[in-house]
Amino acid sequence: xxxDIGEIVSAAKESGVFVGLSTSGVGLAGRxxxxxxxxxxxxxxxxxxxxxxxNRGKADFASAANAxxxxxxxxKPVFTTTVLNRNNLGAIDFILDFARQHGTxxxxxxxxxxxxxxxxxxxxxxxxxxxxxxxxxxxxxxxATLARHKQAGAxxxxxxxxxxxxxxxxxxxxxxxxxxxSGVDCSAGRFYAxxxxxxxxxxxxxxxxxxxxxxxxxxxxxxxxxxLEPIPCHSCRTACYVxxxxxFGLNARAGMNWLGMKLKGYW
Length: 267
Hints:
Distance between the termini: 25 Å
């Protein structure tokens, strides 16, 4: 969507930044040569064509699959990211077969929502999701399936520690907890933060509608980071944050998971 995406990637690389990109694949074919500096790409893939297209609409399966092929043809590591819901719960085997075929890792997250009284949430609401939301039993079953595949050596990127964490999550209708869950404390605002395109810094991406943030343009990045508001929650079930917090919390299994994937050449 950005005509200057290549310039952004190049500028970040010149500053010594490890650069990743998440994409649906739509419009990527004509822009792929501008992304030569990327270190890692993530392609959204929700299952075979009929299921992926049902979930993603205009972000069609052909675009997602082509994104994987384009990145792999250029020697770029790429992961697929699958949002599990009732539509694609039976597509796990297909997604893992696709990952094996293309030499990628498959990460899995669970369809999420949050009830916000001020209606500022960017996350979908139960009414928007209809009957696609998974029950507790379905989520637990999917976690057991992924853990079994991972144990058998399938290219499941999600760490076993993340799967265990999700298995023990007390209420899947709640996205955030005020206290650490399963011994995994949130490191947002201490070891990492999220910088948005307008220059505002937040402890994590999910707080942009819950806090005012700090202007890195006005204050400078260091001061903005040092004066971030305390986080209102200490546990969430957003996969990328959980994996980050596991690594920053020196969780041995999570660290070995990603180090092992690195040694195997997946990224």
